[in-house]
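Below is a filled-in request sheet from our internal design queue. Each sheet records the structural input a requester submitted and the sequence that came back. We keep these sheets so that new team members can see what a complete request looks like end to end.

REQUESTER: design group, bay 2
PRIORITY: normal
MODE: inverse folding
CHAIN LENGTH: 323
BACKBONE (tokenized):
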């Protein structure tokens, strides 16, 4: 484990440098294709009712706090709000509200304090309050639960996709986004294992993706190569880390890996109007294009989202296409 940590070379200095180099996509704070309502609107919907209730408690003096206590409550909330908005605007973020988690947690703590210092007594008397205030209370309770409820679904009908397509008018079985049937998973594992058995004597096997197959013993006969994990490659691509990719391209050129397991690679560029368009372009530029230049597709297993790459036999100069 110590070797893996040392290999990753993650340090506070590195993190600061990586964060400072990541482009800011401020348009994602507003409605956009990556996150429909945008961060600001989504945040307002998620927390607006609760923030208003806290303000109402203070304004109507149900929650009695002095100036210093107001600062103690407000300043951390504003700080976490600002940090969350900036991180959400960085490339790689802005797809949902998860970067606002510290703001949410601070808001929950503030609500708990307000509940203990007057909020509970105020709520007991709201039966005589105006209807609009009751609606705000209901909204504060219901809105945070709506998105999880809407997202609830089953993924375990992989063997019944044929009739589900007919019932739901889905364009095809893959559009249902079901987990693959056990027989499909078993066949895919056999295909991957067979390719590894044929390639392991020629070089190292790199799992850019699907490393859990090694961890839990579904794939055997090859050690884990800690280099070039998909998330690390993506993060380095988003920050345009030239130094990191020099080593990656050198390993590809020397055919260090006799087999690479990855997600299916695509090369088309996208624009800001597409979901995660900038992230897609960074991945294509730094990872997908060089990989497909040095390596050829041996197999694609679309049902499990896996692609197997082997070194190209035709020699070509790929360095001209490097960033």
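RETURNED SEQUENCE:
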């Amino acid at each position: 484990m110590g070797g893996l940590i040392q290999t990753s070379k993650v340090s506070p200095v590195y993190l600061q440098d990586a964060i400072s180099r990541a482009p800011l996509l401020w348009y994602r704070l507003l409605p956009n294709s990556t996150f429909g309502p945008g961060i600001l609107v989504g945040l307002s919907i998620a927390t607006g009712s609760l923030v208003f209730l806290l303000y109402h408690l203070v304004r109507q003096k149900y929650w009695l706090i002095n100036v210093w206590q107001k600062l103690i409550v407000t300043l951390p909330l504003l700080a976490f709000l600002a940090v969350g908005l900036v991180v959400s605007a960085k490339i790689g973020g802005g797809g949902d509200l998860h970067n606002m988690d510290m703001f949410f947690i601070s808001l929950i703590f503030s609500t708990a304090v307000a509940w203990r210092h007057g909020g509970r007594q105020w709520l007991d008397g709201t039966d005589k309050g105006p209807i609009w205030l009751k609606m705000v209370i209901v909204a504060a309770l219901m809105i945070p639960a709506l998105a999880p409820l809407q997202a609830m679904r089953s993924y375990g009908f992989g063997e019944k996709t044929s009739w589900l397509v007919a019932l739901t008018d889905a364009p095809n079985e893959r559009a249902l986004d079901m987990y693959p049937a056990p027989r499909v998973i078993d066949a895919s594992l056999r295909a991957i294992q067979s390719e590894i058995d044929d390639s392991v004597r020629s070089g190292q096997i790199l799992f850019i993706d699907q490393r859990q197959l090694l961890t839990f013993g579904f794939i055997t006969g090859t050690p884990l190569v800690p280099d070039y994990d998909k998330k690390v490659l993506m993060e380095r691509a988003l920050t345009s880390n030239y130094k990191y990719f020099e080593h990656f391209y050198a390993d590809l050129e020397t055919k260090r890996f006799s087999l690479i397991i990855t997600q299916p690679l695509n090369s088309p560029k996208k624009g800001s109007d597409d979901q995660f368009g900038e992230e897609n372009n960074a991945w294509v530029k730094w990872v997908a294009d060089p990989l497909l230049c040095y390596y050829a597709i041996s197999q694609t297993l679309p049902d499990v989202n896996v692609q197997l790459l082997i070194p190209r036999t035709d020699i070509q100069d790929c360095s001209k296409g490097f960033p």
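SHEET NOTES:
- The radius of gyration is 25 Å.
- The chain is about 55% helix and 5% strand.
FILED BY: M.R.
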